[in-house]
Write a structure and sequence with these properties.
Elements (H helix, E strand, L loop, with lengths): L1 E8 L8 H20 L4 E7 L3 H5 L7 H14 L4 E7 L5 H5 L1 H7 L3 E9 L3 E3 H15 L11 E5 L19 E7 L1 H8 L5 H30 L2 E6 L12 H8 L9 H14 L18 H8 L5 H7 L6 E8 L4 H18 L3 E8 L7 E2 L9 E2 L17 E2 L7
Parallel strand pairs: 1-2, 2-3, 3-4, 4-6, 7-8, 9-10
Antiparallel strand pairs: 1-7, 4-5, 5-13, 6-10, 11-12
Helix pairs in contact: 1-3, 1-8, 3-5, 5-6, 6-13, 7-8, 7-9, 8-10
C-alpha cells in the first residue's frame, strides 16, 4: 500500500498570499518525512483551496489564469506537487466554468472541478452543458488528451476529499487528509481464499491495520502543528500493475473476467467491506474503477467486457462514477452532456458522491488502441458510447431536484 497523497486543505487569498502556501509546504514536507519514517511510501503532496467564489468573488474571475500560474509556481518553490484551485458551482456565473480550460492549458499541476449536481442546487442542466464544453475544450489541449486528467464534473461531492480533481476545502481552519493507493490490499486479501467470509475478514483486517498506522502518525504530526487531521479516504485506488489492480482483485474473488457477469456483485462486496472497516473516514472511501489507471480494467475494456454503461451500473453499488474513461475524440459537447446527466441523477437519487472524468482522445475512434508514456496510465482502447444529444425539457437549462431513494 502507498499513500497516494497527503492533502492540505486551506483558505485562499486574493491577491495570492505566499506565506499561507509556504506554511502548507512546510507542514506537508514534515508530514511526508513522518510517514516515510514510519515505513510508508508517499507519492505526492497536494493543496486544496475553497470554491472559486471564495477566492475571486464576482469581480476577479478574469485573473484566474494568472492566479493559477502563480499558485503553481509558489507550490513548486515550496515542494507541493499538485494543487486544486477549487470548484465552480451552479450558482456561480458561467464565467467560472468557462475559464477552467484556460487554467488547465496554462498550467501543468493545477486541478479544477465543476459541480453539476448537489442537494442544494439539484441537477443543473446548465452546469452540465458547461461541464460538457469544458471536457470538449480540455481534450484539445494536448495530443494525448490528458488535459481532462485535471478536471472532473462533481455530483453530490462534499468538500474535504483528498483525491483530485475532486478535492476542495470547505473554508475555515486548515486540515489535512490522506488518500491511499491500496488496491493491492484487496488483491492480497482475496488471493487463495476459500470462502467469502474469509475474503471479507482479511480485507477488513488489512484496512484497519493500515489505518491504525496512518492514524498514529497523522495525529502526532497534526497535534504538533495544530492542524486538524480530517481522516483517511481508503478508496483502494489502483496503479497500472497487476498486483495493484482492482481488476485483479475482482477476478481473484472469482469473477471470470472483470466486466463479465458477476462484476457488479464483486464490486458491491468490496464496497461493503470498505464500509464495515472501522477507521476515521473521509471522502469517497469506496471502490474506484478508473479504466486507464488500472491495467486489468484497461485490458478488459479493450476486450469489450466493460463499457460506459457498465461502469455507470457499477457506480450504483460502489465507486466514484466514471473515472478516466477514454472516449472517441469527435464526441461533441451535446453527446457528453447526457452521460454527465446520468452520473448526476445516480448521485442524487442514491445520495452518494459521484464524479465524471471523461477523456475524449483526439483523433481516435472507438476501438482504437491507446498508448501512454504517463506512468499512472495503462494502455487500452477507446470506448464506444451510446449517447445522443438531449432534447425537449431535458435539453433546457433549468435545475431540478431528485428525492433520495427511500427504500
Amino acid at each position: 500500500m502507498n499513500i497516494r497523497s497527503i492533502t492540505y486543505f486551506t483558505d485562499s487569498d486574493f491577491p495570492l498570499d505566499e506565506s499561507r502556501i509556504a506554511y502548507a509546504g512546510r507542514f506537508l514536507g514534515e508530514a511526508r518525512q513522518a510517514f516515510e519514517a514510519a515505513g510508508f511510501n508517499v507519492q505526492t503532496t497536494r493543496l486544496a483551496l475553497p470554491p472559486l467564489w471564495r477566492t475571486f468573488g464576482k469581480t476577479s474571475i478574469g485573473e484566474a489564469v494568472k492566479y493559477a500560474q502563480d499558485l503553481e509556481a509558489i507550490c513548486f518553490v515550496h515542494s507541493i506537487d499538485y494543487a486544486s484551485l477549487g470548484v465552480a458551482r451552479p450558482s456561480d456565473p458561467a464565467a467560472y466554468y468557462d475559464m477552467i480550460p484556460d487554467v488547465i492549458a496554462a498550467t501543468q499541476n493545477i486541478f479544477v472541478a465543476g459541480v453539476i449536481a448537489s442537494p442544494l442546487s439539484g441537477i443543473s442542466l446548465q452546469a452540465i452543458q458547461l461541464a460538457a464544453k469544458i471536457i470538449h475544450r480540455c481534450a484539445a489541449i494536448s495530443p494525448d488528451g490528458l488535459g481532462n486528467l485535471r478536471f472532473a464534473a462533481l455530483a453530490n461531492v462534499e468538500p474535504g476529499i483528498p483525491f483530485m480533481p475532486s478535492g476542495y476545502h470547505e473554508g475555515g481552519p486548515a486540515s489535512f487528509g490522506i488518500a491511499t493507493e491500496s488496491a493491492d490490499l484487496a488483491v492480497t486479501a482475496f488471493t487463495g481464499v476459500k470462502s467469502l467470509a474469509e475474503a471479507r475478514s482479511r480485507l477488513i483486517e488489512s484496512i484497519e491495520d493500515q489505518a491504525r498506522r496512518i492514524h498514529s502518525v497523522a495525529k502526532k504530526i497534526g497535534g504538533a502543528k495544530s492542524v486538524r487531521f480530517a481522516g483517511i479516504d481508503f478508496s483502494p485506488a489502483p496503479f497500472p500493475s497487476s498486483d495493484k489492480s482492482i481488476g485483479t482483485a475482482i477476478e481473484a474473488l472469482g469473477v471470470g473476467a472483470a466486466g463479465a457477469s458477476g462484476t457488479l456483485a464483486a464490486a458491491a462486496f468490496i464496497t461493503d467491506a470498505l464500509q464495515r472497516a472501522r477507521f476515521q473516514r473521509i471522502g469517497f472511501s469506496g471502490l474506484f474503477l478508473p479504466v486507464l489507471e488500472d491495467n486489468v480494467l484497461a485490458a478488459r475494456s479493450a476486450e469489450g467486457l466493460m463499457g460506459v454503461s457498465d461502469l455507470l451500473l457499477y457506480s450504483a453499488v460502489c465507486g466514484t462514477g466514471l473515472d478516466t474513461v477514454p472516449l472517441p475524440g469527435d464526441i461533441s459537447p451535446a453527446e457528453l452532456a447526457p452521460i454527465l446527466l446520468d452520473v448526476a441523477a445516480l448521485a442524487l437519487r442514491l445520495n452518494k458522491p459521484l464524479t465524471a472524468r471523461l477523456m475524449p482522445m483526439p483523433g481516435k475512434q472507438a476501438g482504437d488502441e491507446l498508448s501512454f508514456s504517463f506512468p499512472f496510465f495503462a494502455n487500452g482502447r477507446v470506448l464506444a458510447h451510446k449517447s445522443r444529444p438531449l432534447g425537449g425539457a431535458l435539453g433546457g437549462d433549468e435545475a431540478f431536484d431528485l428525492a433520495h431513494r427511500a427504500t
